[in-house]
Design goal:
The complex is a heterodimer of chains A (437) and B (329). Chain A has two domains: 117 residues, Roll (Urease, subunit C, domain 1); 307 residues, TIM Barrel, CATH 3.20.20.140. The longest helix of chain A has 18 residues. Helices cover 31% and strands 22% of the residues of chain A. Chain A starts with a strand and ends with a helix. In chain A, helix 4 crosses helix 7 and helix 7 packs parallel to helix 8. Chain A has 437 residues and is an alpha/beta fold. Chain B starts with 13 loop residues before the first helix and ends with a helix. The longest helix of chain B is centred in the last third of the chain and has 21 residues. In chain B, strands 7-6-5-8-9 form a five-stranded parallel β-sheet. A four-stranded parallel β-sheet of chain B has the order 2-1-3-4, with helices on both faces. Chain B is globular. Chain B folds into two domains: 153 residues, Rossmann fold (3-Layer(aba) Sandwich), CATH 3.40.50.1370; 158 residues, 3-Layer(aba) Sandwich (Rossmann fold), CATH 3.40.50.1370. In chain B, strand 3, helix 4 and strand 4 form a beta-alpha-beta unit. In chain B, helix 5 packs across helix 11. Chain B has twelve helices and nine strands. Classes of the chains: A alpha/beta (437), B alpha/beta (329). Chains A and B meet through helix 6 of A and helix 4 of B.
């Protein structure tokens, strides 16, 4: 048994926000109770956590681990190390691998490989269509049986409305959400940044907000029509938030995520062709940032997801219009959300809800807060520690981030997965890949 | 004050723009001599890296370099390592290792010159047109053509109404001219259908105030002092920005008759290459109101002034060109 005591405990499921002791036994939460309630005599290990916060391990429903196929950008092993270091104990891996994760064999490969590594839990997201080509439905049931928790053609939309409708009908039988990258490519037509005065000034092709919004509107109607579950990936516009808010009011089964960078940055970051600010969908305007924060706070948006998208330097170090889309996210999501908490824009409980328990529940994952009997995936967090995002802490094989070199306040000090401490004060304490090496 | 690179007009100060224009004027004379060469840049190396099709700009930069006695070489995509798949930054680094003083670049990607200015800091970069972004020497030569025709100095080139007609959306020429006319104190009208003239161009956040948008040609050019006609980019026809070239030509093409009716006192600019009978009719192209030939002539002077200013590192000062003139007289 492990007793963690003296910490400030935040758990949206149990409704805790205050000083509590946490007792872990055989990998699960034995109990949460007032300080000093547990008899320390029968405990094998006591973790003194005064001044720290403790909350359930974070859950990211949108990461790109690049394996199989692009292992120079990231591997499952490096990706889960980045996850753990960022406070994530569960991540959902997007299927735009090579080959695409559009069949049970590739799903199984990712499941086995990640179990063998044994740090964060990795849940594959299968493709909606074969080869993510938008033409033929992929085998949902086989992939689900192999471990897929959702389906997505992320990076691309399912543009054919007929295919999308049937995919929603078919997925409804399984109760599995379709996680949708919303982009009408006839409207975004290889846009490199938000279409705006700035894009016209810079002479960069624009990826207009309407390209995202028409697809959100379409899929709200398809969700209503089919009763299937639609999860909107990385919502970026004020109008998109409004559409989702209304759909929820109408009782339609939709959910939504937002990335930390869309909560923080605007298109201004493109500056003079800075490719570390290039992603899809692109950074938008300050009024969109405000609407996304509001939507996150009021429950319209259910989750923060990092859209962790590693790219090697070569694919970013080029002409803006040629550079790859996407940025790292796993190690910077928590500090960015905690900055919002510090700024009073989000409560602590809401922050943990959107970073952990709510996305877990949407995607049907095991993680479910710190209630009695739950798997003991736990983060100890030092709200006062400051650190810098640089090569000394970066676990990813890539370093494409607009936050590279930035100082953050608040650091993950320990991570427990199923009651096992896998990370402690900057050191991986239970890493099978390290041993193998 | 002195320029390190010429990446765009937008980041110039008014003072820098004025001195580039006034200095350009001094170089016009060199090209009118029987021996069109001065030793000003002897021993300097200029590389013209043109990764997009070009006739006049490339010839103009090459002639400008040669008339200043710089060692000038031209590289294009075909027949260079670019064709073998070498990336822009690697090509530029390779060229930098040969220690050129100036790298003139034409590139289809907006911002390519800005990336090079960061990545190969020892070499001065001149933007000879980058994607849809800017074409600064074109704006300079357009302004110099106006100075010459209107007999004004750069300082006096203000208070004009400049109508730019056509595909503003994709035009680097339009963008550079907008910034230049903002600095000079002229008002700009953008004329064309909404598909080619997005509302964002009249926005206040990035684009200059004093810009108005007109979707009717007559209204847009009425009483203008200058009408700049842009080339219709034929390669974009499949993107359906206009229903047909016939319709575009009928409603937005400029002819002698339309000019006489709506802007009888205007002078006409066209950056070339022109599509005769589409955005401008052939008769107007070489009409007395058209500055097309002067634009090409002054293009050489402008590029001489830019190369001189960057290579000597002294800013565009009149001292050296004057001594150059003394030398050859």
């Amino acid at each position: 048994m492990i007793l963690i005591r003296g910490a400030f405990l935040i758990d949206p499921v149990g409704g805790y926000e205050g000083e509590y002791d946490l007792l872990i036994d055989r990998g699960v939460v034995e109990d949460v109770d007032s300080p000093g309630s547990f008899d320390s005599a029968s405990v094998e290990r006591i973790v003194e956590a005064q001044g720290k916060w403790i909350f359930p391990g974070l859950v990211d429903v949108h990461v790109h681990l690049r394996e199989p196929g692009q292992e120079w950008k990231e591997t499952i092993a490096s990706g889960v190390r980045a996850a753990i270091r960022g406070g994530y104990t569960s991540v959902c891996a997007m299927p735009n691998t090579s080959p695409a994760m559009d069949n049970a064999e590739v799903v199984d490969f990712v499941v086995r490989k990640s179990k063998n590594i044994g740090l964060a839990r990795v849940y594959p997201i299968g493709a909606i269509t074969a080869g993510r080509a938008g033409k033929l439905m992929a085998p949902f049931r086989e992939m689900k049986d192999a471990g897929a928790v959702a389906f997505s053609d992320d990076g691309d939309p399912v543009f054919d409305s007929g295919i999308m409708r049937r995919a929603l009908q078919y997925a409804r039988d399984l109760g599995t959400p379709l996680s949708c990258h919303e982009e009408d490519k006839c409207l975004s037509c290889s846009g490199a940044m938000n279409e705006s005065e700035l894009s016209f000034q810079l002479g960069l092709p624009g990826w207009p907000k309407i390209a995202e919004e028409v697809m959100i509107a379409r899929d709200i109607e398809l969700a209503r029509d089919t009763g299937g579950k639609v999860h909107f990936c990385h919502v970026t516009t004020a109008r998109g938030v409004e559409l989702i808010r209304r759909a929820k009011e109408d009782g339609i089964l939709v959910s939504a995520e937002v990335t930390p960078h869309h909560l923080l940055l605007t298109e201004e970051c493109v500056g003079r062709y800075d490719t570390s600010a290039k992603m899809s969908p692109p950074l938008r305007h300050s009024e969109d940032v405000a609407a996304l924060r509001k939507g996150l706070e009021d429950g319209t948006i259910d989750a923060v997801a990092s859209d962790h998208a590693p790219h090697e330097a070569d694919s970013k170090d080029k002409e803006f219009s040629e550079a790859s889309m996407g940025i790292l996210g796993l190690q910077t999501s928590l500090p960015i959300v905690m900055d919002l908490v510090r700024a009073g824009e989000l409560s602590r409980v809401r922050a943990i809800q959107v970073l952990s328990t709510q996305p877990a529940s949407l995607f049907g994952l095991e993680a479910c807060g710190l209630r009695k009997g739950a798997q003991a995936d736990v983060v100890l967090y030092d709200p006062a520690a400051s650190w810098k995002f640089d090569e000394t802490v970066n676990e990813s094989l890539s370093r494409n981030s607009p936050f590279w070199g930035r100082e953050f306040t608040g650091a993950v000090s320990s991570v427990f997965v199923a009651g096992q401490e896998v990370f402690h004060e900057g050191v991986f304490t239970h890493d099978r890949t390290a041993k193998a090496a | 004050m002195s320029l390190r690179h010429l990446l765009d007009i937008r980041s110039l100060t008014r003072e820098q723009l004025l001195s580039l224009l006034n200095d350009s004027k001094k170089f016009v004379e060199v090209s009118r001599r029987s021996i069109k060469k001065v030793p000003a840049l002897r021993g300097k190396t200029v590389i013209n890296l043109f990764l997009e099709a070009s006739t006049r700009t490339r010839a103009s930069f090459e002639i400008a370099g040669k008339r200043l006695s710089a060692d000038t070489i031209n590289l294009t995509a075909s027949g260079s390592s670019v064709q073998k798949g070498e990336g822009l930054i690697d090509t530029a680094k390779t060229l930098e290792a040969m220690a050129p003083d100036i790298l003139v670049i034409r590139h289809p990607a907006s911002g390519a010159p800005h990336i090079l200015a960061e990545r190969i800091p020892k070499t001065s970069i001149v933007n000879a047109g980058d994607g849809m972004h800017e074409h600064p020497t074109q704006a300079l030569l357009d302004c110099l053509s106006l100075m010459e025709r209107l007999n004004r100095t750069a300082e006096e080139l203000s208070g004009l109404t400049v109508a730019i007609v056509g595909d503003i959306r994709h035009s680097r020429v339009a963008r550079s001219n907008m910034w230049a006319h903002r600095l000079l104190g002229n008002s700009v009208r953008l004329v064309g259908p909404s598909t080619l003239v997005p509302d964002e161009f009249a926005g206040s956040q990035y684009f200059p105030g004093g810009v108005t948008i007109h979707h009717d040609l007559a209204e847009g050019i009425e009483g203008a002092d200058v009408v700049m006609v842009l080339r219709m980019q034929m390669e974009r026809q499949h993107e359906s920005f206009v229903p047909s070239l016939d319709e575009y030509s009928r409603y937005y093409g400029l002819s002698v008759a339309k000019l006489e009716r709506f802007a009888p006192d205007a002078v006409v600019l066209h950056p070339g290459p022109a599509n005769r009978g589409i955005e401008i009719n052939g008769a107007l192209l070489y009409d007395k109101r058209s500055l097309v030939s002067q634009q090409v002539e002054f293009g050489v002077a402008v590029r001489m002034a830019v190369l001189f200013s960057l290579a000597t590192g002294k800013g565009a000062l009149p001292v050296e060109p004057q001594s150059v003139e003394g030398h050859t007289q």
